[in-house]
Amino acid sequence: MALTPVEIRHLKPSRGFLGYRRNGVDRLLTEIADSFADVWRERADLADKVEALETDIDRHKELEALLRTTLVSAERAAHEMKDQARREADNIIAESHAEARAISRRAAAERERLDGELRRIRALLNSALATVDEATTDRRESVGESTGELRRLIS
């Protein structure tokens, strides 16, 4: 039976003729020693548990610090990646706009070239038509003169 400090304080060993009975006092001392041994073992067990828990706490604190560092690094990396992607997107958009302007300029230049070519071809065609008209008129006149001479000769 484990004794409490209150029970020990109120314990009164039985008295014999010349003082306390030796058997009662010996039994009381044995119980006190047993209780103290139990308390001592329990205290040692608790100290071991406290040490183990403190070790766990230290390990968890290190893990927490590592996780915080990792989280901060991951957030920084994500932010940098997002910024890099935004810069790349802006560059792609700027390049696309520049390329669209260049294509538009080339198309306008090609149109101007083709319009010039069309004007030149029209001028050539008009010149050719004028030449054909002139040649036709000359032939008609020649044919008319030849026909007139033939009629005169025939008549």
What does this structure look like?
It is a single chain. With 155 residues, the chain is an all-alpha fold. It has one domain. The protein has two helices and two strands. It has helices spanning 5-10, 22-154, and strands at 15-16, 19-20. Strands 1-2 form a two-stranded antiparallel ribbon. The N and C termini lie far apart (173 Å).
What does the secondary structure layout of this molecule look like, with pairings?
Elements: H1 5-10, E1 15-16, E2 19-20, H2 22-154
Question: What labels describe this entry?
Answer:
two-stranded antiparallel sheet; 155 residues; 90% helix; mainly alpha; 2 helices; single chain
- First-residue to last-residue Cα separation: 173 Å
Question: From N to C, what is the helix and strand string?
Answer: HEEH
- The helix content is over 70%
Q: Supply the helix-strand structural class.
A: mainly alpha
Per DSSP, what share of the residues sits in E-state strands of 2 or more residues? under 5%
- Structural Rg: 61 Å
Query: Strand order within the widest sheet?
Result: 1-2
Question: Into how many domains do the coordinates divide?
Answer: 1
Biggest sheet character: 2 strands, antiparallel
Rough shape? rod-shaped
